[in-house]
Design a protein that fits this description.
The chain is of the alpha/beta class. The protein contains eleven helices and ten strands. It has one domain: 2-enoyl-CoA Hydratase, Chain A, domain 1 (Alpha-Beta Complex), CATH 3.90.226. Helix 1 runs parallel beside helix 3 and helix 4 crosses helix 5.
Length: 255
């Protein structure tokens, strides 16, 4: 069963993470399915803008820690490699995507879910949204391009603070830091995202591609992704990470 819904309304495509009972945390083939949805919408010439959002009360809770615990228990090297590579493929796709991408951050955006939002060109947030670079809390380093994207947005010093503390950044601070560009009341968020998409869809797709290419920067995303991949492996294999997985899984199992 896919937990990614992909659809089109006029010139706007939608990629919706649809695992609301788990705050849309990545599991199974969700990463691959996000990539496929983006590729399908990229091929559709009638689509000019793509909105990414989450079903229910969360945008994306990041990686499924209970699943990572299971991977460690069975020493499943192959599947952990798969999820790292699939995440990197999504980031690369979004960074080179020729169409405008809008993240409608409707609630919690944690870990890789926060960085998925940061991959998008424009980020609109609900007044109930929050961001957290929660990797340190489970003994891991950042992934989904966070070590590359976050410093670009908030500056290196602030990025280091957010990554080292893993603290919660609520909506107003997220707006002040540039994690989101606008805030809207929860009931108005999707209407605002759709209205912005309709306006942006009027622009020349060639101009959009040129602007995105010109503002991409010269620093190496590939270098950051490869560093993150290697660092994630080192962290994933530590006792500290496994112990954190176990604690997290026990807590979530009681809810």
């Amino acid at each position: 069963m896919s937990h990614i819904d992909c659809r089109r309304e006029g010139a706007t495509g939608f990629v919706v993470l649809n695992r609301p009972d788990k705050l849309n945390a990545f599991s199974g083939t969700m990463r691959e399915d996000i990539l496929k949805a983006l590729e399908d919408l990229e091929r559709d010439k009638s689509v000019r803008v793509v909105i990414l959002t989450g079903a229910g009360r969360g945008f994306c809770g990041g990686g499924d820690v209970r699943y990572m615990k299971e991977l460690r228990e069975r020493n499943d090297v192959a599947d952990f490699s798969r999820i790292l590579d699939a995440a990197n493929a999504c980031v690369r796709k979004l960074q080179t995507y020729p169409k405008v991408t809008i993240a409608a951050v409707n609630g919690v955006a944690a870990g890789g879910g926060a960085n998925l939002a940061l991959c998008c060109d424009i980020r609109l947030g609900s007044t109930e949204c929050s961001f957290t670079q929660s990797f340190v809390k489970i003994g891991l380093g950042p992934d989904w391009g966070g070590s590359f994207l976050l410093p670009q947005i908030v500056g290196r010093d602030r990025a280091k603070e957010l990554l080292l503390t893993g603290r919660l950044v609520k909506a107003d601070e997220a707006r002040a830091l540039g994690l989101v560009h606008e805030l809207h009341e929860p009931d108005a968020l999707m209407d605002a995202a759709k209205a912005l998409a309709a306006r942006l869809a009027q622009a020349s797709p060639h101009a959009v591609a040129a602007i995105k290419g010109a503002t991409r920067g010269t620093a190496s995303l590939d270098h950051a992704l490869e560093y993150e991949r290697a660092a994630q492996w080192r962290c994933f294999l530590t006792d500290e990470a496994f112990d954190a997985f176990v604690r997290f899984a026990a807590r979530s199992g009681k809810k």
